[in-house]
Q: What sequence folds into this?
């Protein structure tokens, strides 16, 4: 970070939530950057960090190839906070004992925290916290005290006050942990001495200068979908390299009702070179007979890139491909050491050789709510910034099993009704849509028997899209939506409502 800001280094041990930790810190007004867990001391101290956070990760400390850190880390006098595996590693490296608990602990559990600990000052000390572990700390290193427990985890928080080393077995960075942000705030401001000198404007300034330096006077092609991410990406790029940007909207035929025309209308009048490519037939042909979700995603990703390459060739000299990939796309696609959940379009689907000089992904480190904030700062209208997310592969991954033109038409109509009805809610869910299952069921309409598809409605409440709860939609709305769908859309005999959170489910069904 230029123009030195106080920095917190997040050491990555392969956990799913590392960027969420970095984001939480940035939101609290402190710049943060992520380094690999085994970074050298020189790398760690290069930014003169005021604090270090060790993330969770999939290893066990006693495995042969367990990720580990430089032990001198704890001698620097810089405050350190270990989270989950980070806690186990810290305690193990400092002479404590880590054991495999008889029982794992996954999900929200009640914690009892000690309000004498600086981390827990001024908060509810009986919060529900997100646990996701099997191993746990059994005995503390010398000089450490226990600061919290849960029913199955006797040491859920600990620390060595004098050395400013603290550790939590639970995840303060996720929304599923009550008081999590406050705990991080206490660590940053009361342990590390943060002053809160960072804001999203610094992010804009830094990205703009990085993009300018990289692009020079060359030309950039952006995959514009009309969604929040690619719209914000377009705004950022047009600020950084105005006049050098061409935006291509690939209509893969998996857009929602009326959406392609809306995107065209919104962007074609703007000050950027907008091109719409109608590729629906190509994409459908590629997906014929394909039922596996990962294969669908990969085929769509590959076809998407192929269309781009063709367009780029037609346009003549274009050097960079820009994409609105955001962090949750990256982490859930299993980049680095994180476990792969699913290949998000634009990440897992990208072939090695893409035929451009390089890829520009200026939002790659950001989460959805940060992207929205960035969009507002860049002057995008609320209608764009507030749009709910829509996955790159579109309705193709909301149709379970083979994608056909007929199923797309059914889903488009049903989804439209679902969104229209849920739009009327006073407190809207963060994302809501319909999924066409490949199960058919018997119904009765008029005096006749029907045998048609089961449609699922999904509505989730989340801010980070990494975890979510299902939204408690009023029954009257559910009833009206279901009745409208079965009556107005041919091909659906039954409507169900998905009541699963993430984890254990994901937001999309595929
Ligand atoms: P999941 O299903 O992984 O979704 O819980 C998390 C969020 O990401 C969106 N999503 C995608 N976005 N390309 C995207 O740009 C994709 O391939 C993709 N898959 C899921 C999803 O709608 C949710 O908001």
A:
């Amino acid at each position: 970070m230029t123009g030195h800001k106080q920095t917190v280094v997040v050491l990555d041990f392969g956990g799913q939530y590392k960027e969420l930790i970095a984001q939480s810190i940035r939101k609290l007004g402190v710049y943060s950057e992520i380094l690999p867990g085994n970074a050298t001391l020189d790398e760690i101290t290069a930014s003169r960090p005021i604090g270090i956070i060790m993330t969770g990760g999939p290893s066990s400390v006693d495995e042969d190839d367990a990720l580990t850190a430089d032990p001198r880390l704890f001698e620097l006098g810089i405050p350190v906070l270990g989270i989950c595996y980070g806690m186990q590693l810290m305690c193990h490296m400092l002479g404590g004992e880590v054991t495999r608990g008889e029982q794992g602990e996954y999900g929200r559990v009640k914690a009892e925290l000690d309000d004498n600990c600086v981390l827990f000052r001024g908060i509810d000390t009986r919060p529900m916290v997100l646990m996701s572990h099997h191993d746990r700390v059994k005995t503390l290193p010398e000089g450490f005290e226990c600061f919290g427990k849960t029913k199955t985890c006797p040491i859920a928080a600990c620390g060595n006050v004098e050395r400013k080393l603290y550790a939590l077995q639970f995840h303060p960075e996720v929304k599923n942990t009550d008081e999590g942000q406050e705990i991080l705030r206490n660590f940053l401001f009361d342990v590390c001495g943060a002053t809160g000198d960072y804001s999203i404007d610094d992010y804009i300034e830094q990205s703009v200068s990085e993009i300018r330096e990289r692009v020079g006077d060359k030309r950039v092609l952006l995959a514009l979908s009309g969604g929040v991410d690619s719209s914000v990406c377009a705004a950022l790029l047009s600020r950084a390299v105005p006049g050098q940007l061409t935006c291509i909207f690939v209509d893969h035929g998996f857009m929602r009702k009326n959406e392609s025309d809306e995107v065209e209308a919104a962007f074609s009048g703007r000050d950027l070179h907008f091109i719409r490519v109608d590729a629906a037939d190509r994409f459908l042909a590629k997906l014929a007979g394909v039922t596996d979700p990962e294969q669908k995603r990969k085929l769509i990703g590959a076809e998407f890139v192929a269309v781009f390459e063709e367009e780029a060739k037609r346009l003549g000299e274009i050097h960079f491909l820009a994409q609105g990939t955001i962090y949750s796309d990256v982490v859930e696609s299993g980049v680095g050491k994180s476990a792969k959940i699913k290949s998000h379009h634009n990440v897992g689907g990208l072939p090695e050789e893409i035929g451009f000089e390089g890829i520009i992904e200026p939002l790659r480190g950001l989460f959805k709510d940060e992207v929205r904030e960035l969009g507002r700062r860049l002057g995008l209208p609320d209608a764009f910034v507030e749009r709910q997310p829509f996955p790159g592969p579109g309705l193709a991954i909301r149709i379970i099993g083979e994608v056909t033109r007929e199923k797309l038409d059914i889903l488009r109509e049903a989804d439209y009704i679902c969104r229209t009805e849920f739009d009327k809610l006073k407190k809207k869910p963060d994302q809501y849509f319909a999924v066409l299952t490949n199960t058919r069921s018997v119904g009765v309409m008029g005096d006749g028997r029907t045998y048609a598809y089961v449609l699922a409605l999904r509505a989730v409440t989340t801010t980070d899209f990494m975890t979510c709860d299902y939204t408690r939609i009023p029954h009257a709305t559910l009833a009206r939506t279901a009745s409208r769908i079965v009556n107005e859309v041919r091909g659906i005999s039954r409507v169900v409502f998905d009541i699963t959170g993430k984890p254990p489910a994901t937001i999309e069904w595929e």
The chain is about 30% helix and 25% strand. The pocket of xanthosine-5'-monophosphate is lined by residues 328-329, 332, 342, 344-345, 389, 391-393, 431, 465, 502, 506-508 (CB under 6 Å). Residues 7-191 form a domain with the Rossmann fold fold (CATH 3.40.50.880). Residues 347-353 have pLDDT under 50 and may be disordered.
